[in-house]
């Protein structure tokens, strides 16, 4: 536990928001929970979990139970220091005195959310509450419900053989560093931290 805290502090930079994207057909709740708890332990404030079939989102209570279990097993008595807000779109949020915030996303939170935001903006224009010249990046960001209150991801860990993020937040990852790993199943902390170390050492030019 002490090592995880020190690891997070030792990195030159740490992502504020990390996306965990699973492109494999069989998601592992236990391994995803470990990844989330490691993110919390090293000091990452926002975590998004995504699979292209929406399995984690449909079974978010099962994932939350596994996260709480992993917190106890991995952090022991320290787990109260690493509580998480489980922000869910489908039902009332479960808030546990959060230090980290978790969102579980599915494809409907990607392109479909952009379409819904565009429709909402058009309705505002029709109701003369907005004009078409008001539309800009910040306005669209505010209309998107899937990432309300979340910054754009700094880093995405993509798991699986597919060379695509398969619809994960297409509007938000234009400046995101994406690191591919073979699988999230049986992933080790060493693999996770190696990806963080790679992110910390990379130079981001922000399109320049």
TrEMBL record:
GO terms for cellular component: dehydrodolichyl diphosphate synthase complex; endoplasmic reticulum membrane. Keywords: Angiogenesis, Developmental protein, Differentiation, Endoplasmic reticulum, Glycoprotein, Lipid metabolism, Magnesium, Membrane, Receptor, Transferase, Transmembrane, Transmembrane helix. Pfam families: Prenyltransf. The active dehydrodolichyl diphosphate synthase complex is a heterotetramer composed of a dimer of heterodimer of DHDDS and NUS1. Interacts with NPC2. It is found in: Endoplasmic reticulum membrane. It catalyses: n isopentenyl diphosphate + (2E,6E)-farnesyl diphosphate = a di-trans,poly-cis-polyprenyl diphosphate + n diphosphate. The keyword Lipid metabolism applies. Coiled coil: none annotated. With DHDDS, forms the dehydrodolichyl diphosphate synthase (DDS) complex, an essential component of the dolichol monophosphate (Dol-P) biosynthetic machinery. Both subunits contribute to enzymatic activity, i.e. condensation of multiple copies of isopentenyl pyrophosphate (IPP) to farnesyl pyrophosphate (FPP) to produce dehydrodolichyl diphosphate (Dedol-PP), a precursor of dolichol phosphate which is utilized as a sugar carrier in protein glycosylation in the endoplasmic reticulum (ER). Synthesizes long-chain polyprenols, mostly of C95 and C100 chain length. This is Dehydrodolichyl diphosphate synthase complex subunit NUS1. It comes from Crypturellus undulatus. PANTHER family: DEHYDRODOLICHYL DIPHOSPHATE SYNTHASE COMPLEX SUBUNIT NUS1. The gene is Nus1. Its cofactor is Mg(2+).
């Amino acid at each position: 536990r002490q090592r995880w805290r020190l690891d997070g502090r030792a990195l030159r930079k740490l992502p504020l928001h990390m996306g965990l994207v699973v492109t494999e057909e069989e998601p592992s709740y236990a391994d995803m929970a470990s990844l989330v708890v490691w993110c919390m332990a090293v000091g990452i404030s926002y975590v998004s979990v995504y699979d292209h079939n929406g399995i984690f989102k449909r079974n978010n209570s099962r994932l939350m139970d596994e996260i709480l279990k992993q917190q106890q097993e991995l952090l022991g008595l320290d787990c109260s220091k690493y509580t998480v807000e489980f922000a869910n779109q489908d039902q009332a949020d479960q808030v546990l005195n959060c230090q980290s915030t978790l969102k579980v996303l599915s494809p409907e939170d990607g392109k479909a959310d952009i379409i819904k935001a565009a429709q909402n903006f058009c309705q505002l224009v029709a109701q003369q509450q907005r004009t078409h010249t008001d539309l800009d990046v910040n306005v669209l960001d505010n209309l998107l419900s899937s990432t309300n209150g979340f910054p754009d991801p700094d880093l995405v860990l993509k798991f699986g053989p597919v060379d695509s993020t398969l619809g994960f937040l297409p509007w938000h990852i234009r400046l995101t560093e994406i690191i591919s790993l073979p699988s999230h199943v049986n992933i080790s902390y060493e693999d996770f931290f190696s990806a963080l170390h790679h992110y910390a050492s990379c130079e981001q030019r922000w399109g320049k």
